[in-house]
């Protein structure tokens, strides 16, 4: 009885093939991993994004006070122009000072950070397939 080297290796490694993974699809387990998914406006305090929240706050404050600051600058320039004129215009000067003070109060009343400025890190769960592979020796 004689056997070739290739036949011997085929017989020896016959049972060491990779398992048929289609059979394992039935017993497939899906694991879930969390991944970052941007930002959202609601969430728990531990997920707050301080940087994004402060950026939102700065943008809101800039938008809400830009026109008032521009008007304040115009009024201050007009007040200095009136003060430089020789004949004193006390009524006009008092009106400008009052209006300047009101604008400053309005600018100061804009809150530093508000609830709708808050941004929270958003996480979503993504499925990660895993197969139950067991090797018996």
UniProtKB/TrEMBL annotation:
InterPro entries listed in its UniProt record: UPF0229
Transmembrane segments: none
Source organism superkingdom: Bacteria
Key word Transcription present: no
Matches recorded under Pfam families: DUF444
Name of the featured protein: DUF444 family protein
The entry's keywords: Coiled coil
Coiled coil (UniProt feature): 65-106
Species for this entry: Vibrio alginolyticus
PANTHER family, per the entry: UPF0229 PROTEIN YEAH
């Amino acid at each position: 009885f004689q056997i070739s080297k290739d036949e011997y290796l085929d017989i020896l490694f016959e049972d060491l093939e990779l398992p048929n993974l289609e059979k394992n699809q039935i017993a497939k387990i899906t694991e879930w991993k969390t991944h970052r998914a941007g930002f959202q406006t609601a969430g728990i305090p531990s997920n707050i994004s301080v940087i994004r929240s402060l950026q939102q706050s700065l943008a809101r404050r800039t938008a809400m006070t830009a026109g008032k600051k521009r008007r304040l600058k115009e009024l201050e320039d007009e007040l200095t122009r009136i003060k430089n004129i020789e004949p004193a215009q006390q009524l006009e000067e008092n009106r400008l000072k009052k209006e300047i003070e009101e604008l400053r109060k309005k600018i100061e009343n804009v809150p530093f950070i508000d609830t709708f400025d808050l941004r929270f890190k958003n996480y979503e769960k993504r499925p990660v397939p895993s197969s139950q592979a067991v090797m018996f020796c």
